[in-house]
Amino acid sequence: MTVSIKQQHARGCGPAVLAMVCNQTYEDVVQSFGEHDFEKKGLYWPDLVHYLEAAGFALRMKSKVEGWSNRTERECWPLPPFAPIHIAEVKVAESSPVIHWVVMLHEGTVLDPLSSEPRMLADFHEVYHIAGLYYVEGHPGLKKPDVPTRRDSHGVYEQLIGPLREKAKELGYALGAHGSLVRDIDLIACPWTSQAVDAVTLAKALMKVAAAHGPCGIAFFGAHETGAYFRAGCPGGKAHQRLCWTFHLGGGPYIDLSVMPRLPHLPTDEIARMREVMESDADWVFQKKSP
């Protein structure tokens, strides 16, 4: 049974909802975040997702606006319960200066860290996002989550890389991995053929493949990465016109996809210039020097 827990700091709604969901005490959750000052600063979606994944939960995120390229508002919002338990990001009142976290149970009752009385989502001025939570690893509360270290992406990478590379090749790209595969799965897509599709088309196709073959059957943007700028790949945000997307898989590792830009064919005069440079620098044989 989920018990209502009151926040004990001005910005303590995050630890309170984590304690409710994970069957822990408020003090244990606060302690897990070390020197974090909950009187001055609260938690955000990445903090909650990291903690919940470490505790053995998979997440399914829902927002008021749905879709990728054709963004439309849901006719029914906030949604009725769709998971065993939920965390919702809300605005308590129109004048509230910060977001607030609450827990919604499977039958729709909302547990608010600011109140001892049960509520409903309709009681709040605005509901931004709702995350449905599913137990996928053991039983929450048996072990305090080891938030900083419980990450390993190798298993999910091996599960996904084959289908992802096949789709990338079909669309004219070569797909490779870099990094340690400890926290996340870093992928680089390079245009390889003259028929390579645009970067957004590739990203959408790979996200669909990740959902079909991933551990939880879903792939979605983070709660603060749903705007047009993020869906377009954060244009201008990376060197060499590289575009990037982050796909969350509902639990455990996530994918960081980088796509290098397609370039036009080199003009004839540029090719001739490069050949002249190479002819003047033809010594490309290197040998280790003897000590």
What would you say this structure looks like, in words?
By secondary structure, this protein is an alpha+beta fold. It has 2 domains: 13-135, Cathepsin B, Chain A; 154-259, Beta Polymerase, domain 2, CATH 3.30.460. The chain has helices at residues 13-22, 26-32, 45-54, 154-170, 199-213, 228-231, 268-279; strands at 57-63, 65-66, 72-73, 85-91, 100-105, 110-111, 126-135, 173-178, 185-191, 243-248, 254-259. The strands form 3 sheets. Strands 1-7-4-5-6 form a 5-stranded antiparallel sheet, covered by helices on one side. The chain is elongated. Residues 139-150 have low confidence and may be disordered.
Write the layout of secondary structure elements.
Blueprint: H1 13-22, H2 26-32, H3 45-54, E1 57-63, E2 65-66, E3 72-73, E4 85-91, E5 100-105, E6 110-111, E7 126-135, H4 154-170, E8 173-178, E9 185-191, H5 199-213, H6 228-231, E10 243-248, E11 254-259, H7 268-279
Parallel strand pairs: 9-11
Antiparallel strand pairs: 1-7, 2-3, 4-5, 4-7, 5-6, 8-9, 10-11
List keywords for this structure.
291 residues; alpha+beta; Cathepsin B, Chain A; Beta Polymerase, domain 2; 2 domains; five-stranded antiparallel sheet; elongated
Whole-number count of domains: 2
Main beta sheet strand tally, sense and closure: 5 strands, antiparallel
Strand content: 15-25%
Order of helices and strands: HHHEEEEEEEHEEHHEEH
Counting DSSP H or I runs of 4 or more residues, the number of helices is: 7
Low-confidence stretches: 139-150
Percent range of helical residues = 25-40%
Oligomer: single chain
Termini, distance in Å? 72 Å
The CATH architecture term of the largest domain is Alpha-Beta Complex
Mean pLDDT score, rounded? 85
| CATH fold type of the largest domain | Cathepsin B, Chain A
- What structural class do you assign from the helix and strand content? alpha+beta
State the CATH class of the largest domain: Alpha Beta
Number of strands: 11
